[in-house]
Amino acid sequence: MPQAQRWPDTLWIIRHGESAGNVARDEAHRSNAARIALEGRDVDVPLSALGQEQSLSLGRWFATMPEEARPEVVLCSPYRRARQTAALIHEAGGLPVGPDDFVIDERLREKEFGVLDGLTTHGIRQEMPDQAEFRRILGKFYHRPPGGESWCDVILRLRSALDTVSLHHAGRRVAIVGHQVVVLCLRYLLENMTEERILAIDREGDVPNCGITEYRFDPSSGPNGALKLRRYNFVAPLEREGTPVTAEPDAKAVAP
User: Fold this and answer.
1) Residue 151 burial (CB < 10 Å; 0-12/13-18/19+)?
2) CA 106 → CA 77, 145, 158, 195, 202, distances in Å?
3) What is the rounded distance in angstroms from the CA atom of residue 66 to the CA atom of residue 18?
4) Which end of the chain has fewer beta carbons closer than 10 Å to its terminal beta carbon, N or C?
5) 140-185: per-residue pLDDT in tens?
6) Nearest to 53 by CA among 104, 19, 13, 2
7) Which residues make Cβ contacts (< 8 Å) with residue 152, sequence separation at least 6?
8) How far is CA 161 from the centre of its chain?
9) pTM for this structure?
10) How far apart are CA 71 and CA 68, in angstroms?
11) pLDDT tens-digit profile of 145-157?
């Protein structure tokens, strides 16, 4: 006898809108600066004006769906830019659930970069050449900067987060609002990828701000069904409204 469904009916994984950190990172690279001009904690970096408009555009797209087809559960990174994105999607009519009902989950936070926080690729080579060399040898999947995380560390906490989704939200429509590395590492887990495969996808291009990765439950896949990828880096909701699409790594996502 087949077991009960353990996955959501639909899972949307959304990267936050463009942030002030994305803008500062671009400027640092244009000027070949060693450090990104940001003060305060990464967790507190807000959306840019464009990031707010991207979030509203995405919310208006969700609002075109029947209410019974929209996300009914929202899990969100505690970072300000992610929470703002989810709140603006709700403000535009795209989410039946409001911010008070969002599940804020620290396991969905941005990858932590430790001593490399705020450094550009040029800055790492200039100020911490030993870390640049360690990363070259180990690769981005396994390299863990002092005080920071490797992709494997992020994957470990996301395994736990997916167990929570499976336990509490099976059979429902779930949206996760997070960060670029979170999107990629969730794909790695949900599609049972290898290191080589997920890094090849990463090399193809950055995850767009407010881009959607969407999975649908397929009951015919395996003995108990599985989530199947329906679309990745979907930005038609922004393009439909003429909202510029941006795809910069987060300010703390230093070396490519």
Assistant:
1) buried
2) 6, 20, 10, 24, 23
3) 27
4) N
5) 999 999 999 999 999 999 999 999 999 999 999 999 999 999 999 9
6) 19
7) 141, 142, 144
8) 14
9) 0.93
10) 8
11) 999 999 999 999 9
